[in-house]
Amino acid sequence: MVGFLLVRGVARVEIFTDDLGGFFVLALLYVIGAAVLALAATEVMRLLLLRRTPRPRIFFGWISGILILVLFLLPLITDQPLAERTGLAFVNLITTIAIAVLVGMSAAATDRARPGTIDPSDLSER
Questions:
Q1: Averaged pLDDT for residues 109-118
Q2: Which of 34, 35, 65, 88 has the most other CB atoms within 10 Å of its CB?
Q3: Around Cβ 99, how many Cβ atoms within 10 Å?
Q4: Are 96 and 49 in contact (CB under 8 A)?
Q5: 121 and 108 in contact (C-beta within 8 Å)?
Q6: Is 0.85 surpassed by the pTM of this model?
Q7: How many CA atoms lie within 13 A of 18 on its CB side?
Q8: Pairwise CA distance, residues 21 & 61, whole Å
Q9: Spatial contact of 44 and 63, defined as CB atoms under 8 Å apart
Q10: Confidence of residue 59 (pLDDT cuts 50, 70, 90)
């Protein structure tokens, strides 16, 4: 939602529609879609970790990178005015990067907190 407010408020680019009521409905649907995407990304990371995928965070980074690129380029191939296309592409970019970074950081934090793992800093003190 912050991305939409930046694009519409600061850059003065009309995304989705000109009337304010239609904008909020479509923005709400976008936010719900982003929440579903975040849950799906979390599940993908969980499956990568559970299946003992070699270097699961790097693999997730590649999956995320491809998805970020696709969702960034998707609005650019529509027949909307250029300002609207680039504004929506910007919103897609910051949303997907935020999701990928937060899921990756959460996985890194749980990997460090997993019981039974040895912290390398503990070995140097002995």
A1: 62
A2: 88
A3: 21
A4: no
A5: no
A6: no
A7: 1
A8: 37
A9: yes
A10: very high
